[in-house]
Amino acid sequence: MTYDEKMRQVDQYIDDHLSDFIADLTELCAFPTVAAQNQAIDETAEFTAKLLEKYGFSARVMPSSGNPMVYGELNGAADNTVLCYNHYDVQPAEPIELWDSPPFEATERDGKLYARGVVDDKGHIICRLAAIAALRAVYGNVPCSVKMLIEGEEEIGSMSMESFIEEHRDMLTGADGCLWEFGGVDFEDRPEIVLGMRGDVYVELRAKTVSHDAHSGLGGSIFPNAAWRLTWALSTLKGIDERILIPGWYDDVREPTEAEFDLLRHLPRSDESLKEAFGLKAFLKDVDGVEMLRQQLFEPTCTIAGLGSGYQGPGSKTVLPAEAMAKVDFRIVPDQEPDDLVAKLRNHLIDQGFDDIEVIQHGGSRAARVDPDSPFVQMVIQTAREVYGTDPVVAPTSGGSGPMDPFVRLLNVPISNVGIGYSSTLVHSPNENMRIADFVKGIKQTARVMARVGQGEAR
User: Fold this and answer.
1) CATH code given to domain 198-253+300-365
2) Quick check: pTM over 0.85?
């Protein structure tokens, strides 16, 4: 049979066994694997390893410096190898009351499946496994070999990933390409391929001024207020022009290449769709078009991600807070180093007179970029055309962050993505969902990637 004939049979198998794949996804989503709250980590890792074994892998749970890793190997018809990176942990489901169905009970409504992790990222794990099942059914074996590395800390910064890859580099090297953990279609249902990620530095700032909350009439004029103390400290981090004010923050920023700018210029304009989706009249500084994309993808950011202090219940309570907390998320770009930036933040606060502000680092990852001319990337682009019947949107990087850097820098593996998400998939929000039709297409494209890697097209 020709490649096209085999793919038609693969597609038919996927359509015929869709309910089985959704059943496995439903069972996986039932684990409340919230890394930030240390919930169901070990149980999910063990279940995921057994799931890989069900689909033909030799799999095991491996220790790391943090949450356990799940690693699986499947020897295919060829030594040509796809490495799949995924994660089994999920974001917190709160606020629970905003869900239309229980977050850890996958619920199908109107052609969509709702659950925490159904897209990010448990659905992508099942997408890879379903493609393997279909290929084995048609080919008798997977056309290429497959390695899967599934972590449990992606949603809290992947702090263990670099050391794990350094320790197990021999086990992970040699892949022709890596399928990343995310992906999907844009506002116009065009498949999106992303060739990099920004890095991230996540810190918690804490102020403590008095031993306990005080009556505001007693202490308002003579006691230091932790909420004001933290507010003043935060105000020194970023100007009203959105420029980060910490000295040296931009020193190591690598400017994008002309090729990366060219990809940016060719990205479709989704300004109005994005504004509509988030209820905006305009973006910051009234940017639009290519300049909006440049700022969104190529510039460092400083975002207050959470604030807490004092009384926040109904009505009034005249209190002077003893403590205040802010969580701050910095997105960073290539050549910026997380530890260096945290040191600059600490020094800045001291220089500004805020040596009493405690800085707690919760995560840090470098940015990474992938060569768009890599044979693996070009092959993934071709499989997107086959499945979706249109050219994919190719972005030079994502605005988001993840542990892509050690894969690029230590394993020297080209990376691309095949996904199951769409513009309203609501990852990290209540009612996270996937359209089942997108799930099917993601499986079909993944199968084509593996088949073509087996044929040597990624080299």
Assistant:
1) 3.30.70.360
2) yes
Domain 3-195+370-454 has CATH 3.40.630.10: yes
Q: Looking at 191-322, which runs of residues are DSSP E strands?
A: 191-194, 196-208, 214-215, 303-309, 319-320
Q: What is the mean pLDDT of residues 227-253?
A: 97
Range(s) of the chain covered by CATH 3.30.70.360: 198-253+300-365
**Start-end of CATH 3.40.630.10 domains in the chain:** 3-195+370-454
Quote the DSSP letter at residue 253. P
The count of C-alpha atoms lying within 13 angstroms of the C-alpha of 114, restricted to the half-sphere facing its C-beta, is 16
Assign 266 a pLDDT band (cuts: 50, 70, 90): confident
Q: What is the DSSP string of 398-427?
A: EEEE-THHHHHHTS---EE----B-TT--T
* Residue 269 confidence (pLDDT): 83
Locate tokens 């060219």: which residue?
262
CA angle 366, 369, 370 (to 5 degrees): 140
Closest CA to 61 of 52, 70, 50, 53: 70
Residue among 273, 272, 276, 255 at smallest CA distance from 264 = 255
* Distance (Å, whole) CA 396 – CA 369: 7
> Which residue stretches of 299-374 are H helix?
338-351
Q: How far apart are CA 83 and CA 256, in angstroms?
A: 27
Rounded to 10 degrees, the C-alpha dihedral 137/141/147/148 comes to 10
Strand partners, 62: 69
Asked whether the beta carbons of 369 and 255 are under 8 A apart, the reply is: no
